């Protein structure tokens, strides 16, 4: 494995997972970290003054070259994405993220990057295998024959293939993880791009504080998913990047629950019981999806293991504080973290 004594680049650094990865690198003593995002710094969820922060549009090839110069490792999270409400209504915008990954791969090759990590998604999996509500376990080979989520899933699958061919044709060291529903503090929780755990936390908090005693659920509530706590995601990213396994691999919890069960958990955390209003016309995605973890256990001797209840307690507490702050007119709280954290 290469020595960790050069610049490590994280794109999408102002977002959820990118911010957590930078925090982990700082805690691990990485001295040269470059954080890149298109958003203005005040909109980053986590912003650290002791790393190199760049605001760049990575849809542009020249921006990718600025971002990757002198990099020994690249972790590419930059993309247009969000929950089902965003994905289903912004297919072209999601597809355009192929520009980011293509230009980032070209720049990584140009400047001799030693490791390139790409964040893919369980949305690459064949939709025909996800029609049942019983949370079918999706193995890595189930991505083919290809029938991914329209728009976002196709972009992810295409970019996976680009990583593969850059590795095979040009010798670029690439690793790909297929994320299964990452959640936790410092994630999007309002505005249309939030995913189910954060959206449900917000809705329960709203109902509790406003006294409405009702929650709207998209779909029938029978849809099943697995949800991975962000700390497990960060650990998995680093294990996969440093592993000898070069093919796309699942990174997700195998603890499947229905959306109704997820609401049960959040209600219990909040100490409320709400009436449920089901919006069957709302975006809801596939009926069932779960992570099959045979490969990650075989090659990494590990799998994500934070119990959903534990992770949701931490997520609910963080969103509650954010919600209250926003109601007071403080807006989204973007906290400057000290270099010791």
Can you put this structure into words, describing what you see?
The chain is 38% helix and 19% strand. It is built from eleven helices and 17 strands. Helix 7 packs across helix 9. The chain is globular, with a radius of gyration of 19 Å. The two termini are 27 Å apart. 46% of the residues are buried. The C terminus is likely disordered.
What key phrases describe this protein's structure?
341 residues, alpha/beta, seven-stranded parallel sheet, two-stranded parallel ribbon, 38% helix, disordered C terminus
Itemize the secondary structure elements and their pairings:
Elements (H helix, E strand, L loop, with lengths): L6 E5 L4 H12 L5 E5 L8 E2 L4 E4 L5 H8 L2 E6 L7 H6 L1 H5 L2 H13 L4 E7 L15 E2 L13 H19 L3 E6 L2 E2 L12 H15 L3 E5 L5 E3 L1 E2 H12 L7 E3 L4 E3 H12 L4 E5 L10 E2 L2 H7 L7 H20 L7 E2 L5
Parallel strand pairs: 1-2, 1-5, 2-4, 3-17, 5-6, 6-8, 7-16, 8-13, 9-12, 10-15
Antiparallel strand pairs: 11-14
Helix pairs in contact: 1-8, 2-5, 5-6, 7-9, 7-11, 9-11
> Kindly, what is the distance between the CA atoms of the first and last residues, rounded to a whole number of angstroms?
27 Å
* SS-based class: alpha/beta
Mean pLDDT: 91
Q: How would you sum up the global shape?
A: globular
**How much strand?**
15-25%
Order of helices and strands: EHEEEHEHHHEEHEEHEEEHEEHEEHHE
Low-confidence stretches: 333-341
Rg of Cα set? 19 Å
Helical amount among residues, as a percent range? 25-40%
User: What kind of sheet is the major sheet?
Assistant: 7 strands, parallel
Number of helices: 11
In the sheet with the most strands, the strands line up as 4-2-1-5-6-8-13
Total DSSP E strands: 17
């Amino acid at each position: 494995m290469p020595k960790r004594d050069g610049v490590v680049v994280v794109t999408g650094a102002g977002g959820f997972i990118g911010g957590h990865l930078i925090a982990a690198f700082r805690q691990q003593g990485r001295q040269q970290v470059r954080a890149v995002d298109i958003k203005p710094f005040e909109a980053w969820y986590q912003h650290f003054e002791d790393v190199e922060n760049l605001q760049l549009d990575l849809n542009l090839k020249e921006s990718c070259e600025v971002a990757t110069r002198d990099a020994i490792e690249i972790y590419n999270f930059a993309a247009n994405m969000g929950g089902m409400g965003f994905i289903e209504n912004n297919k072209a915008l999601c597809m355009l993220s192929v520009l980011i990954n293509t230009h980032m791969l070209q720049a990584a090759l140009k400047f001799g990057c030693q490791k390139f990590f790409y964040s893919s998604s369980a949305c690459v999996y064949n939709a025909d295998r996800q029609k049942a509500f019983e949370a079918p376990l999706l193995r890595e080979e189930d991505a083919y024959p290809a029938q991914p989520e329209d728009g976002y899933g196709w972009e992810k699958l295409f970019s996976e293939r680009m990583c593969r061919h850059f590795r095979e044709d040009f010798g670029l060291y690439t690793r790909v993880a297929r994320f299964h529903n990452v959640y936790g503090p410092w994630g999007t929780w309002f505005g249309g791009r939030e995913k189910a755990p954060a959206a449900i936390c917000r809705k329960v908090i709203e109902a509790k504080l406003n006294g409405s005693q009702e929650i709207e659920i998209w779909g029938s509530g029978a849809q099943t998913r697995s949800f991975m706590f962000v700390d497990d995601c960060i650990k998995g990213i680093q294990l996969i990047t440093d592993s000898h396994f070069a093919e796309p691999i699942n990174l997700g919890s195998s603890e499947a629950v229905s959306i109704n069960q997820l609401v049960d958990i959040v209600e219990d955390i909040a100490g409320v019981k709400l009436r449920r209003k089901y919006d069957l016309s709302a975006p809801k995605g596939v009926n069932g999806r779960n992570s099959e973890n045979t490969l990650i256990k075989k090659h990494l001797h590990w799998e994500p293991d934070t119990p959903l209840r534990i992770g949701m307690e931490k997520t609910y507490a963080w969103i509650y504080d954010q919600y209250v702050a926003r109601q007071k007119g403080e807006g989204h709280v973007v906290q400057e973290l000290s270099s010791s954290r």
